[in-house]
Every structure is written in C-alpha cells, then in structure tokens.
Amino acid sequence: MSIEITGVNKRFGDFVALDNVNLSIPTGQLTALLGPSGGGKSTLLRIIAGLENADSGSVVIEGTEATNLPAQKRNVGFVFQHYAAFKHMSVAKNVAFGLEIRKRPKAEVKEKVEELLGLVHLSQFADRLPSQLSGGQRQRMALARALAIEPSVLLLDEPFGALDAKVRKELREWLRRLHDEVHVTTVFVTHDQEEALEVADEIVVINEGRIEQIGSPDTLYDAPSNDFVMSFLGPTTQLNGALVRPHDIEVFAHPVENGIPARIARELRVGFDVRLWVELLDAAHEEIQVTVTRATQRSLALAEGNDVWLVPTSA
Amino acid sequence: MVRTHPALRLVLRLLVVGYLVMLVAWPVGLVVTHTFDHGFTALDNAFADPNVVHALKMTAIVSVISVLINLVFGVTISILLVRYEFWGKRALSALIDVPLSVSPVVVGLSLLLVYNPINGWFGAGLADAGIKIIFSTPGMIMATTFVALPLVIREVVPVLEEIGDDQEWAARSLGASPVQVLRRITLPSIKWAIVYGVVLALARSIGEFGAVKIVSGNIVGSTQTATTVVEERYQNFDQPTAYAISFLLAFASVICIVVVAVLRPKNES
Ligand SMILES: Nc1ncnc2c1ncn2[C@@H]1O[C@H](COP(=O)(O)OP(=O)(O)OP(=O)(O)O)[C@@H](O)[C@H]1O
Ligand SMILES: [Mg+2]
User: Fold this and answer.
1) Which of A33, A148, A213, B90 has the fewest Cβ atoms within 10 Å of its own Cβ atom?
2) H or E segment and range at residue A125
3) Fold held by A237-312
4) How far is B264 from chain A (nearest CA, A)?
5) CB count, 10 Å around CB of A238?
6) In this complex, which of A73, A84, A146 lies closest to B166 when CB atoms are compared?
7) Mutation choice for ligand 1 from A9, A11, A14, A15, CB with most ligand atoms inside 8 A
C-alpha cells in the first residue's frame, strides 16, 4: 500500500469535514476520490499532501509516518484545480523549480525539464510565461512540475475542473495514458462520475466526510453498496420500491411473464439512446424512466401512447 | 461601456480637465514660474544658504530611513494580515488606517506627550539614558514613519489577497522551505506592489509637514526640513527661496511618478 490513512478526523469550527476516514491506496494505481461538492474530497487530499493538518488520525506514505511531516518533506506532487502556476517564471523555470530547490546540477535539471516538457507536449512553449498558455496547457505544465520531483505519490485536486468539456475529455484520456507510462501512484479528486469511471483503476466514493464505498469502477457501478453510491454513479429510477438503472429495464411490446404493464408517456432521443417516460398501469400510476437503444425502439416500434411490459434485468 | 451622448462626453471631459487645472496644474505651474522669475538666481541662492542645504539633507535622511522602516514592517504586516490567523487581527487591520485619518498634527502632539524628556511616559527615562527623541532626528523619523505607515501595506495587501496562497502551497509541496517560498514566490509576486508602495511612501515622507514640525521643534540649521524651511522663509518674506524649495519638492514628486511609469512592465495593468 502506498498511502495508509487511519482514523482521520477534521473539523472546521463545528462543521465535521472528515469523520473517521480509513483508507488504503494501492501502489502504482490511479485512484479517484469521487463525491458531491462539499463532501470533503479536497480536505482529504490536502491532508495527505500536508497542506492541511488533521485533528486526529495518521497518514503513512510509502511506509513513512507522515502525519507530522511538513508539506515540503513529504515528496508529494500536488496539482491544483486552478493550476497555481508560478506567474513570474517561464514554463521551463516552473518545471525546474523542485529540482532547483533540491540543488540538482544544472545539466541534470535542463535534461529533466526537456524530457518532462516533451512528455506533456509543451517543448515549444518552454520560454513562455504561464499567462501566455491556455488553461489545458497550464495544467499540463503544472503536472510536469509536480512530476519533476519524482514524487512517491501524485495528488490532483479536480485537475480538469476549470476547463471546457472537450479539453477535459482529451486531458483525462491523456492522463490515463500518461499514468500507464509513468506508473506513479496517483490520486485525483473529481465530482464527475463519468471522469472517475473512465479514468480510475479504483474509486473511493466520499460523501459528507465519510467513505461510502471503495471499489473498481465495475464493482461500484454494478454492485453499489447503497442507494447513495448507486444514484451518484449514474442515472436511476424507482421500480417496485427499488432503485434501478433506466437501461437495466427490458421493454416488451407484448405481455410477458412477470412483466409490469405500463404506457409510454413521452420519449426523448439523445444520440443513440432513447429515454422513455412510462406510466405504470397500477394503482399509483407512477411515472418512471427507462432507457432503450435506438435499435430496440425501432424494432419494437415504440411510440408515445403504446402499451409496454417492463422486466428489470439486473439483480 | 455605457454609451453616452457626444455632447455629454465633451462636458464631462471639460469638467475633469477644468477641475485638474484649477486644483493642480495651475497652482503648481505658478510655483514653477515664480521659481524661475529671475532665471536660476532663486535656486542658486537657495543652494548657497547652508541652512537650506542642511534642511534638504535632513529631509533626505529622514525620508529614506522612514521609507526603509515602512518597507520592512509594511511587507511583514501585510503578509501577517493576509496569510495568518491570529488574535487581534481585525483590530490591527483597523489600526493601520489610523495614520490616514488622523491629522499629522495630532500624531506630532501624541509623540511629544510620550517621548518628551521632561514628563513624557518614556521620554524621561530615555533622556536619562542619554537618548534624545524629541527635537532631534529619531523623533522626526518616528513621526514620518507613522504618517506614511499605511501606504506600503495598502498597496501590498490587495495583491497578496488576489494571488492567493496556491502558488505558495505548490512551492511547499515541491520541497521549498517557508523562507524559500518567501524569497522565490511571495516577494517576486508582490514586487510591483512593493515598488509602488515605496514610491508613495517616499513622496509622502518628503512632503510631511505637520507632525515633523511639532516633533522637530523646527530648529534652524539643525532639525529643520525642506517643508518647514519653506514655511519659515515664506513668513519671513524670503519668497524666492520658499518658491525654489517648493519647486524642488514638486520636482521630487514628478521624478517619483516618472520612475514608476518607466519601471512598470508593459503587460501589467
Ligand atoms: N478552510 C476552511 N474553513 C472552513 N470550512 C472549510 C474549509 N475548507 C473546507 N471547508 C468545508 O469543509 C467541507 C468540505 O470541503 P472540501 O473542500 O473538502 O469539499 P470537496 O469535497 O472538495 O468539495 P468540492 O467538490 O466543491 O471541491 C465544505 O463544506 C467546506 O465548506
Ligand atoms: Mg474540492
């Protein structure tokens, strides 16, 4: 295990930001801390990095007791949501910062900076100031700067949160590839479930200062341990008093055994998915959501006003 | 930008220009023309007068020392106020504006009460130890420092607040010690705010009159400064010298402004 967090508590005044958090983060993996805003993700990450002190509990990084170690001695790379670029230094100087602090020989620093700038595709921008870069480029520079010190763990706090949707998507795919190349233990915070599912090896779901569930993306998606995790990881709808995913309901155009009779109230096509709002033909006349593929909709000739029979497929 | 009628814009422009001309340009312009009424004779005479030269020296010494003190304390207090939580922070932050709101005369009188050698709170003891504050340079430096105290802080604090502490934390996580963070990150990011603050404090210190006049005792050839010598000469009907020194004071301010304009990097707003 690369990071061991035991019994960590943190309060801000009366507000409990972290409530007895225990967590082991495996070496060499990409772990996502996922949860709603204000859940305590950044606080936990900052405690790991030493940017914040826990009220109680301990943090062990790569076998070293780090609870009382100041940030500069933890050898942790930290990437901030808003880049935290050193505005008065060139891109190359930013990346070189940690190495110069460590008094590495000039030639070695130069070589390492060139290598890292190549890795993050910023070689031609080495002499620019951060203000002359785009948001995505600035964040790649911040990443190179954090990687330069060869950190034992790399921590990213919503690294792509300030970027537009397209750049976000590009950068997270790029982060995944970079991680496969560099293999440094990485923890990143996000409140975007799609980002976590797409990029992470392991996801830690945090809500109201507590860990709700830890597991691989598949485990969390297929076997959420509670309704909170289930509804946070994807769309849900209520059927027979249970939470199910709208695409885990099979739709039939003719009566079937155990089929729940319903009528299509509305439909909305989103790309290849078709969302159906169906009214259950029981006493309550509840409306629930079902998602089918365009192909299913066409083959069954589903349309508004049709009667259908629903069968939950999962579990 | 709000669209305004061209006529209204013209009126507004005339108003602003008129205001500045009546209050600043014309009066200062008159000082300059009076100084050079008879070519350089007024300035030459002023520089030939040892008391005037001494007063100019006093102004230079007192301003430079008080600006240095305000530089060190101003930057330290700004960092404390913005980056640290401590008991009494709000009170301190409110106190800093006192020198801007209190008349310099009051500052001078209060220093006199505390440090005068006969019945001042500290003054008597210090006088016994052979240290003279009132009617001498240390008192004048204290008065000037007090009056210019908020200027560096007022420039630096907003900049520190705006840049936030992310850069400093990033540097810490990259292995920098607090001192290295200060030298490599914090000070370079507030460099220009410090320069503006110092120039403003310098201009204010050179021009200080009320507090210094009371504390210095205005002793000719000893504790007299450029501003107090202007008043003395003017009242003693030596107007050419009064104008000449006023011109020098105004000239120093213009130099300050030009220095800032030249130093200021193009891409900073
Ligand atoms: N310095 C602080 N002082 C007081 N309260 C704080 C402080 N830092 C965080 N909090 C509170 O602690 C809670 C958790 O904050 P945290 O920043 O860890 O949330 P988060 O999960 O990162 O949320 P987001 O996704 O919005 O960034 C929030 O309710 C926040 O208001
Ligand atoms: Mg956060």
Assistant:
1) B90
2) none
3) OB fold (Dihydrolipoamide Acetyltransferase, E2P) (2.40.50)
4) 14
5) 12
6) A84
7) A15
Q: Chain B within 8 Å of A77 (Cβ-Cβ)?
A: yes
How many angstroms separate the first and last alpha carbons of chain B?
18
Q: Which of A49, A83, A86 sits opposite B173 (nearest CB)?
A: A49
Per-residue pLDDT reduced to its tens digit, B201-254: 999 999 999 999 999 988 888 899 999 999 999 999 998 999 999 999 999 988
State the amino acid at position A246 in one-letter form: P
How far is residue A88's CA from residue B190's CA, in Å, rounded to a whole number? 10
Q: Measuring from each residue's beta carbon to the nearest atom of ligand 1, which residues come in under 6 Å?
A: A 12, 15, 17, 35, 37-43, 191
- Structure tokens that stand for B170 in this block: 């990033």
Q: What is the pLDDT of residues B2-44, one digit of tens each?
A: 677 888 999 999 999 999 998 888 988 888 898 888 888 888 9
Nearest residue of A to residue B188, measured between CA atoms: A88
- pTM comes to 0.83
Q: Rounded CA gap, B221 and B50, in Å?
A: 8
Report CB contact under 8 Å: A87, B170.
Answer: no
Listed in order, the ranges of chain A carrying CATH 3.40.50.300 are 3-231
Cβ neighbours for B173, distance < 8 A, ≥ 6 positions apart: A49, A50, A51, A71, A72, A74, A76, A77, A78, A146
Q: How far does residue A207's CA lie from ligand 2's centre (Å)?
A: 12
Chain segment B143-174, per-residue pLDDT in tens? 999 999 999 999 999 999 999 999 999 999 99
Output the residue whose Cα is nearest ligand 1's atom 24: A37
User: Using an 8 Å Cβ cutoff, are A289 and A280 in contact?
Assistant: no
Residue nearest atom 28 in ligand 1 by C-alpha distance: A38
Question: Which residue of chain A has the CA closest to B172?
Answer: A72
Q: Is 3.30.110.170 the CATH classification of the domain at A3-231?
A: no
Amino acid (one-letter) located at B241: T
Alpha helix (H) ranges present in A37-164? 41-49, 91-101, 106-119, 135-148
Contacts of B185 in chain A (CB under 8 A): 86
* Ligand 1 center from residue A38 Cα (angstroms): 5
Nearest to B175 among A82, A86, A149 (CB): A149
pLDDT tens for chain A, 315 residues long, are: 789 999 999 999 999 999 999 999 999 999 999 999 999 999 999 999 999 999 999 999 999 999 999 999 999 999 998 999 999 999 999 999 999 999 999 999 999 999 999 988 999 999 999 999 999 999 999 999 999 999 999 999 999 888 888 888 888 888 899 898 888 999 999 988 999 999 999 999 999 999 999 999 999 988 899 999 999 988 888 887 788 889 889 999 889 888 889 999 998 988 888 999 998 887 777 888 999 999 988 998 888 888 999 998 865
Q: Walk me through the domains of chain B, giving residue ranges and CATH numbers.
A: 41-102+136-268 (1.10.3720.10)
Q: In what order do the strands lie in the sheet with A307-312?
A: A249-252, A307-312, A260-270, A273-280, A287-293
Q: Are strands A260-270 and A273-280 parallel, antiparallel or unpaired?
A: antiparallel
Continuous segment of H or E residues that includes residue A74? none
Looking at all shown ligands, the one closest to residue A192's CA atom is: 1
